[in-house]
Amino acid sequence: MEMQPLTGAPGAPYSQSSTPVPQRDPNALLNECREVSRNLDIVETRLPELQRLQKNFTSGGGASAQQVDGLSADIMTQYRGLADRVRRIKGQPDAGNPRNRPQIDVLDRRMKRSINQFQQAESQFRKEVQEQQRRQYMIVNPSATEQELDEVTAAGTDVQIFQQALMNADRRGQAQSTLRNVQQRHEAIQQIERTLMELQQLFQDLDTMIVEQEPMVQNIETKAEETNTHLEAGNVHVAKAVVSARAARKKKWICLGIVVAIIIIVIAIIFAYGATAGHWFG
């Protein structure tokens, strides 16, 4: 029985896996993209509510710093979770499939635009809080220079500067309420800075996710190429073994033919000798 190559032979032991491979849903990534997009719609509907609270806070309309911070933190948590989902989608092995790539790119751009909207709202809020700080300082120190006003809006120094200005202006009676308002706005500025830093980090994570996944994809491709190379090498060895077996069998038949021919020749010589001598047929 001849040996067969590993591929292309019916019933070859290594041509198929005996264990069925589970089939991945071809629409899984597209469905995930649609789900993330729907959740982005929900988050974006909360941004106008956040902006309304921020304006009420800076205008003294009744919104507290706790309300603003709470809603902002909640929205930040939602963006963080959605950005993580986008990164996981982009890291899937079939994310580069021509069927999936366009939709994933659309989702990635949509995610970044949405984060940018949140950044703009926070940046505008920071600007309004800083402007309010400047106005408050001008009230307690009308002769303040531009440098002093810039220092007032610098993180970490505004409370001390306000306190000193109130003491110098001899407005001790209103110091407590003014300092409380200043402290709230100072904490608001710090929270805004933390939020903006985290949003910037989300942008960087979205941009670096593909780079982080590329070595993994390359490794998968390398392993696949190595497997294919080994399979081809195995086929070559098997093909050589088949040729060798055929050659050995051919040599065996040649040797057998030579032996038979020799035996026939020997028998012919013996009969010829006996006939010539006349002893066998007389």
From TrEMBL:
Region named Disordered: 1-26
Pfam families in the cross-refs: SNARE, Syntaxin
InterPro entries: SNARE (IPR010989), Syntaxin (IPR045242), Syntaxin_N (IPR006011), T_SNARE_dom (IPR000727)
Limits of the T-SNARE coiled-coil homology domain: 179-241
GO molecular function: SNAP receptor activity; SNARE binding
Organism domain of life: Eukaryota
Family assignment from sequence similarity: Belongs to the syntaxin family.
Annotated Gene Ontology cellular component terms: endomembrane system; plasma membrane; SNARE complex
Keyword Membrane set for record: yes
Protein's name in the database: t-SNARE coiled-coil homology domain-containing protein
GO biological process, one term: exocytosis
Membrane-spanning ranges: 253-275
UniProt feature coiled coil, ranges: 104-135, 182-209
Record has Hydrolase as a keyword: no
Keywords attached to this entry: Coiled coil, Membrane, Transmembrane, Transmembrane helix
